[in-house]
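In this supplementary section we document a worked example of the pipeline. Step one takes a protein sequence of length 127 as its only input; no multiple sequence alignment statistics are reported here. Step two produces a three-dimensional model, which step three serialises into structure tokens for compact storage. The input and output of this example are shown verbatim.
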Amino acid sequence: CNAMEGAMYSFPRVDFTSTALQEAKRRNIPVDLMYCLECLENTGIVIVPGSGFGQKKDTYHFRITNLVYNFEEFSQMLDSLEKFNSSFHKKYEEKLRAKIQAEVLQKTQFKERGSRVIIKTQFQTKM
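The serialised model returned by step three reads:
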């Protein structure tokens, strides 16, 4: 994200994991809208999905308007946004890790049945 220099608006780019993209698809909403809604629910900060501004395909942004004049309040808002962003990405990475762990467990069960080489090859290819 570029530093804001006297502008009211900032338009940072957000990269999403495949897990977040799948969750947005399951909810039938754009992933940047899902991000903005979860930000509002978790922080009270209103940000606008970039999909409403004609962003390039497979890139994701949000627009934030800076109307906070007090530096301390502005700093607190940015801290809240940073914490939300970290927790959002962690939330969807953990789902991916849990899915991979479940697949490993499933393949381990097959491994105990004697398919050790086949299972190892399938898992390495999938990763």
